[in-house]
Amino acid sequence: MKKTALMSIMMLVALLALAMTMTQTHAQREIIHEERSQYRDVVVTEFNGQRCMLFNVHRGDMNQTCMDLSDPKRLVFNYTKMSFAGLLLNPDPQRILVAGLGGGTIPMAMRDLFPDASIDVLEVDQAVVNVAKEFFDFREDEAITAHVVDARVFIKRAGLRGEQYDYIVLDAFSGEYIPEHLLSKEFLEEVQAILTPDGVVVANTFSSSRLYDYESVTYQAVFGEFYNFKLPGSGNRLILATKGPLPSPGELRSPARELYDALEPYGVNLMEYPPRLTTRPDWDTSTRVLTDQYSPANLLN
Amino acid sequence: MSVISQSSQSMPGVSAAPIEHTPYTRLVILCVAFLNGFVIMSIELLGGRVLAPYFGSSVHVWGSIIAVFMLSLSLGYLWGGRLSLRRPGPRVFASFFVLAAMLCLPIIFLADTVMTGIFVTIEDPRYGSLLTAMLLYFLPICVMGMVSPYSVRLLVSSEEHSGGVAGMLYFVSTLGSALGTLGTSFYFVLWFEINTVMWGCVAALLMCAGAVLLTCRSPSAVSDTDSNASAVAATSEVGQ
């Protein structure tokens, strides 16, 4: 009898302790919403005054996007800030295409910065669009449209219709990395086909992945020389590519000065970007180019 | 296996197999069934990559591919079974593989043309991918589906071990499918281009046809007793 009583008490204590630790983590990272999706469930958490969107909650919390609740305008992630380096190459975009919505941070900032521009946002997952609207202040209006479509399909169709964009952001990530059909030479050629002669492509990639060399040679094969942009302390590498020859690094300083004030509220210090841009390859140039026929992207990552 | 050879020993000549069973025939038929299963899943896995540039890699693209493969196989089983009722023999069996190999060629040569046409005419990528999958994969996979029931007929020589033969054939062909899926997704796409793997599949199918023609003979050439004797020899060989 005594033994059983003791056991019960011990189990009760253990349960209580477990419950307490659970409420503690609960307070640290509160899940405020879970959206069911065709692909992977989208989770919204709040932590430290930040609201974040996550795809793979069970596999090492990869934040897709975060918002500073006290200052929603200020961009949280370095790579989001870095994507505005594209403005150094095209300071006044009129037709903007953003592949990959996330919380809608980049398109909404572009909407504020360039009220006259028209913006198309591509997002394959309706659930992400819903969550972005409900929790991250993303909204569509006459200038900004979210298309629930695979980026490859939309861009191919835009090319057939002869549509052109002068500012293209490639930021489509699945739970792990960029889907392989959005990494191939053929895809980049389709992107190039809808780029205006003065337009710029801004692609967000990881600087530490095994794919780094593959991506680099593939962009090189399509666009020729491009600007490689990394910042210390950020795991992202931004590719800035144009159709024609790149402007010299010296030419980037004046747009940086002109746009500095407009971008300052977003936490983007555009002035420090031009010296960080380089065309020097820091990858193995003999790496095989990724094509639709050969794209083992997710195996290499 | 030992059960099968015992029963065929105890009841010789109940119903003759449609092919002369030599020591190699059973092995060859099991091998081609294995390769057939391997090739089917290898092609299915590559299908996702073939369609992705035009229809994306959304969940409905996989839905289209898997649905079309299942439909093709189901009808292939049906028609292959029907065909096995009328004078089954190694020639027809080998011709399945040759036909399947030929029908794989449009996947290599015409996929882009077909998909461009469909991409332009059908806006909805769900139905675009479904129609593409139908056009590219229905015929070859259907013919590959015909292999399974037909090989059961070729190996069965009496009623009572038909279940055992069918089970063994399901086992090897589905094992082949499992390895085809794994090999393609883990390694082949890393080593080769999609079309190179497709050529490998065509070559494998043609090899199957060749192996069948080389080893399997119609029993008409030999007398009934000979045929049954060699059937027993073949089964006991595999049984060990």
Summarize the amount of helix of chain B as a percent range: over 70%
Task: Report the structural category of chain A.
Answer: alpha/beta
User: Which stretches of chain B of 5+ consecutive residues score pLDDT under 50?
Assistant: 1-15, 222-240
CATH arch. level architecture of chain B: Up-down Bundle
Largest sheet of chain B: none
| Continuous helix count of chain A | 9
Molecular shape of chain A: globular
Nearest-integer average pLDDT of chain A: 89
| SSE string of chain B, helices as H and strands as E | HHHHHHHHH
List how many beta strands of chain A DSSP finds: 12
Give the overall shape of chain B, derived from the CA principal axes. Answer: elongated
- Give the helix tally of chain B: 9
Oligomer category: heterodimer
Radius of gyration of chain A: 22 Å
Structural class of chain B: mainly alpha
